[in-house]
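REQUEST ID: PR-0412
SUBMITTED BY: lab tech R.K.
PRIORITY: routine
TASK: structure prediction, single protein chain
INPUT:
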Amino acid sequence: MSLPITHIENNVLTDPLSQQEIAQLARAYGAQIYRAAYRLLGDRTQAEDVQQDVFLRLIETRPRNVVSWPAYLTTSAVRIAIDRMRKQRRWRQMLPFWHGAEAETAVSPEQNFAVHQRNKSLRLALTRLKPREAECFVMRHLLGFEIGAIANAQGISENYVSVSLNRAVQALEVRLNDHSDPKPENRS
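STATUS: complete
OUTPUT:
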């Protein structure tokens, strides 16, 4: 879908987007942005906040060289969601010091506990990756983007996307396996 954004010269946006153009982008791609954020964060309210942040940033900035609005907007959502996860992780690490207790107590139905824990571990592991690797991983494996689309959205080569994906998968395997295989106790 091509949106009629008229103030582009040499593939560079010359003026900020109008409210009408931003509204048009929101109608066309808002649901896609929400789904990307929700897939990462697992929380409806936070996904809505990310969706809103994406469009607020469009109001404040002049995006350059936008080849694909869906890819550009989804990449923005992924970046904002990962930033939120990192902030949450830092906050949770500080809570025990302030409250003198565990930062998080898990209360969930028994049948959902394993899925909840696995998702939580993946989210935590994603926050510990380099930003580019995390973005490429999320776009490819959680959102289903093709490598070429990721390369266009990120402004990097397809080869660099593949390298980033490989590094991300290797790092996630190490981190997730460390959490899933508890070390046996030495009962001597």
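NOTES: The CA atoms of residues 38 and 46 lie 8 Å apart.
REVIEWED BY: pending
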